[in-house]
Amino acid sequence: MEIYFDTENIDFKLSAIMLTRKWLKESVKNENPKFKIGELSFVFCDDAYLHKINVEYLNHDTLTDIITFDNSDDENKIEGDIFISIERVRENAATLKTIFEQELRRVIIHGVLHLCGYKDKTKKDAQIMREKEDFYIAKWLEMA
Known about the structure:
Elements: E1 2-8, H1 17-31, E2 36-45, H2 47-58, E3 66-70, E4 77-85, H3 86-96, H4 100-115, H5 123-143
């Protein structure tokens, strides 16, 4: 299992890296005991960097807080690249009147849930995704 945290175009340092790795590993195992984390890379970046990826790879000319690329060839292996705009997360936290750290954990687990097979394009799928995020945020708060 390799979980990496990097940055692009932004000065940012994730807090509690070891605890975050443990939380992600336990979350994935909770979703499906057969799931194993392979190589999972988080890249924290600014809006401009993520916008460029959104346009170039997804043909979406919009700002977003997260883009997840699934790199797994095995249905039981969780592998991917997750790009997160720290600027969007900060703005979302302010809009939602929550603390930045909690919103960041929500976005982190959101990307991992996509790699576990969850979708969020329909209202029903988005509701399931939100419930899962809330569940794992509670788990994070218990661990932290």
